[in-house]
Amino acid sequence: MKQHDVPDDGVTFDQPTSDPSDSPGTLTINQLLVESRIGLERVHPGDLEREIAEGALVVDTRPVDQRDRDGDLPGAVIVDRNVLEWRLDPSSPHRLPIADDPGRRIIVVCNEGYSSSLAAHTLQRLGLKRATDLIGGFQAWTALRKQSD
Length: 149
Description:
Elements: E1 2-5, E2 12-15, H1 29-37, H2 48-53, E3 57-60, H3 64-70, E4 77-78, H4 84-88, E5 106-109, H5 115-125, E6 131-133, H6 137-148
Parallel strand pairs: 3-4, 3-5, 5-6
Antiparallel strand pairs: 1-2
């Protein structure tokens, strides 16, 4: 197995040396993650407070068990990952009232910064061009806070 670097967060993945996909156009999850991050201006955990002060909408997509275990993210709106697109798409009749501005900065936060990259990329495809995510997710934000204490 060889190592494959994923941009922005320094995490590496074990990846087979041969392409596991047999059909053209098929990606591995690692390739999809890299592709998804290309258009994101990802937010460093140390910049999250400033982004909130400047009006960014922070969306915590962590499951309830992770939030119960690790705590809440102050200032974040909780939206289950399985309904994220419906709650944030300004054209959706099921959108949250705070999701009426397609130009608003949206920062998606998951536990470690992987599924949030995929989600932010999807939001961008829905027209929310300023959607992005938090590098390293909630765990990186928590670790930074502990360093500050």
